[in-house]
Amino acid sequence: MAAAGVGVTACSGPDEHNPRLPDPNAQATIAKSAVPEGSGVIVGEFVVTQPEKGEFAAYSAACPHQGCNVTDVVGDTIQCACHGSQFAVADGSMTQGPATTGLTPATVTEDGDELQLTA
Ligand code: FES
């Protein structure tokens, strides 16, 4: 009978075994005009959305499933390509797993024609 070995496997996957929390020090700036109405855009560590004209919201881009950054905003859906989770532009809530919770809200502050984003 072979002795059971302790296997150590290098993980080259995207954060699959190293979930991370949203970066508490993240910040970014984006022009309001760069955020599509009824949709959103990924800016560094954030996803910025404009669910209704002139109403902006921001979330951490860190997927609550296993910590990949979300990868795309298509229409009213924020998508994570790592395992297929999806989130609503309207409020960051989870609309398709495997994530079980929505995106973590961030702070968005309007400054003239720009938006300041902070964790
Ligand atoms: S990290 Fe698994 S779906 Fe986003």
UniProtKB/TrEMBL annotation:
The answer on whether this UniProt entry bears the keyword Aminoacyl-tRNA synthetase reads no
Q: What does this protein do?
A: Iron-sulfur subunit of the cytochrome bc1 complex, an essential component of the respiratory electron transport chain required for ATP synthesis. The bc1 complex catalyzes the oxidation of menaquinol and the reduction of cytochrome c in the respiratory chain. The bc1 complex operates through a Q-cycle mechanism that couples electron transfer to generation of the proton gradient that drives ATP synthesis.
Q: Which UniProt keywords apply?
A: 2Fe-2S, Disulfide bond, Iron, Iron-sulfur, Metal-binding
Q: InterPro entries per the record?
A: Rieske_2Fe-2S, Rieske_2Fe-2S_sf, Rieske_Fe-S_prot, Rieske_Fe-S_prot_C
Q: Where is the composition biased (Acidic residues)?
A: 110-119
| Coiled coil spans | none
Which Gene Ontology molecular-function terms are recorded? 2 iron, 2 sulfur cluster binding; metal ion binding; monooxygenase activity; oxidoreductase activity, acting on paired donors, with incorporation or reduction of molecular oxygen
Keyword Iron-sulfur among record annotations: yes
User: What name does UniProt use for this protein?
Assistant: Cytochrome bc1 complex Rieske iron-sulfur subunit
Rieske domain location, by residue? 27-117
Region span, Disordered: 1-24, 96-119
State where composition is biased (Polar residues).
96-107
Give the UniProt entry's GO cellular component terms. membrane
Species name for this entry?
A: Propioniferax innocua
CDD domains from the entry?
Rieske
The cofactors named for this UniProt entry are:
[2Fe-2S] cluster
